[in-house]
Amino acid sequence: EAAHRLFSPGADFLKGVVAMDGLPRDDRLEVCFAGRSNVGKSTLINALTGRKGLARASNTPGRTQEINFFTLGSSHYLVDLPGYGYANAPLPVVERWQALLRAYLAGRANLRRAFVLIDSRHGVKPPDEEIMTLLDRSAVTFQAVLTKADKVKEQDREKMLAQVRERLSKHPAAFPEIVLTSSEKGQGIDTLRAIIATLP
Ligand code: GTP
Ligand code: MG
User: Fold this and answer.
1) Which range is the signal sequence, renumbered to this chain (predicted)?
2) Strand runs (DSSP E) across the chain, as ranges?
3) pLDDT at 65 exceeding the cut of 90
4) Considering its fold, how many domains does the chain have in total?
5) Does residue 61 have its Cβ closer than 6 Å to ligand 1?
6) Does the beta carbon of 168 lie inside 6 Å of ligand 1?
């Protein structure tokens, strides 16, 4: 099917970008992965592409400090964004990443969907609200992806889904379907591949 066709040629690292003028040409469909530091963005990209070491994942929050572009086949880019809400780097550094992140999310013409990753244990936090509001204003459709589903019990998961659903209802650019994932267990990965492969 579509997901198999898109993902079987494989993914490769293209480049890390530190300023808007370093962005690759916008001649491919693009999806990005946004979320608080340590939520599991890089790990999710590795799970989707089936390449463990492709995006650098780490226990150290703030690992991804650039906008990292990966080619997927010949038609798509996957984009790993620096985490937000991470205060433990020098302030000017944090401010530079945040400015770049905002400029990218607001101004990328070929960006078809932003996946906003939310930790299943923590739910939607103020910095997530900020990003979702920015995406509303920029008219970028975004979809919530709950990560680390393997870390929560079934009843807590339901509560979290309800909280996220309620928050999304306030955001005009939010796509209503929430994807529940575990990069560890492979849960939701095929669903997300299919979503990426069949974007309008
Ligand atoms: P930054 O680059 O710092 O913004 O973080 P990130 O969002 O890219 O997170 P990353 O993928 O580096 O993952 C952070 C930690 O969470 C790592 O130790 C991962 O192994 C762990 N992790 C990611 N996804 C899952 C998951 O589905 N289940 C579990 N149990 N752990 C996960
Ligand atoms: Mg990362």
Assistant:
1) none
2) 11-17, 29-35, 67-72, 76-80, 111-119, 142-147, 174-180
3) no
4) 1
5) yes
6) no
Average pLDDT of the chain is: 93
**Which of 58, 116, 145, 181 most suits a substitution to test ligand 1, by most atoms within 8 Å of the C-beta?**
58
Which CATH number is 166's domain given?
Answer: 3.40.50.300
Residue with tokens 């995406």: 135
Residue 180 has which token pair?
Answer: 């529940």
Neighbours of 17 (CB within 10 A): 17
Give residue-wise pLDDT tens across range 125-147: 999 999 999 999 999 999 999 99
Residue range of the domain that includes 164: 2-197
Q: Name the β-bridge partners of 34.
A: 116
pLDDT at 97: 82
Q: Does residue 41 have its Cβ closer than 6 Å to ligand 1?
A: yes
Q: Distance (Å, rounded) from C-alpha 199 to C-alpha 41?
A: 20
> What's the predicted TM-score (pTM) here?
0.96
Tell me which ligand sits closest to the C-alpha of residue 120: 1
Amino acid occupying residue 24: P
pLDDT, tens digit (0-9, with 9 covering 90-100), for 152-190:
999 999 999 999 999 999 999 999 999 999 999 999 999
Q: What are 187's strand-pairing partners?
A: 182
Q: Which amino acid, one-letter code, is at 115? A: F
Q: Indicate the residue type of 152.
A: V
